[in-house]
Amino acid sequence: MPHHNKFVILALMISLWPFSAIASEARAFLIQSLEEIKSMQSFFEQGMGGSDKSVTGRLLFQRPNLFRMEISPPVSQSITSDGESLWTYDKDLEQVVVKDLKNSLSEMPFMKLLSEPRAFLEGKEIVSLSEDEKRFKIAIKETESPIEFVELDFSSGLISRIFVGSKVGAPLEVFFNRMFLVETLPNEEFIFVLPENIDLIDNR
Fold this sequence. Notes:
single chain; alpha+beta; outer membrane lipoprotein receptor (LolB), chain A; 12-stranded mixed sheet; 24% helix
């Protein structure tokens, strides 16, 4: 092999190694941080890209796939996963839509990331966006996914922000506050009780 080719290959190896190491460190940090979240609760503020409107609410989560989001008025909506089905209750419309959870998680990247961090991150490109802050961008390569990328911010080891870039429609940004980890949460928190005189749309 000509000497100049050797130097070119060596230069490429040296230049690529730091990026590979950074990506590996980012993946390890994300997996470790997310796997520590066994059960948690948090308040949140959610905004839609291109709009000054936002909603607030509370999130409860318990691994592997139990969660409940209570969105405060004026939206007045709850989204509950019992581990098998996803129940969306719109109080203003007096309507409940229930879907199979497994099929629904592809449209809920944050919940899928919390539920199965290793599986979610496998094969995905992870970029560290800040040296001083723990901010990461996760590229979603699956062509069938409606999500283009996910950004995660951490503060004191806990998630403080998530930004979801969509292939269609506006992006979604959520800020978390007063998040704290708990040992466990009662299973009753994740059992949806159908109110009386409510329309049920069963799409399972």
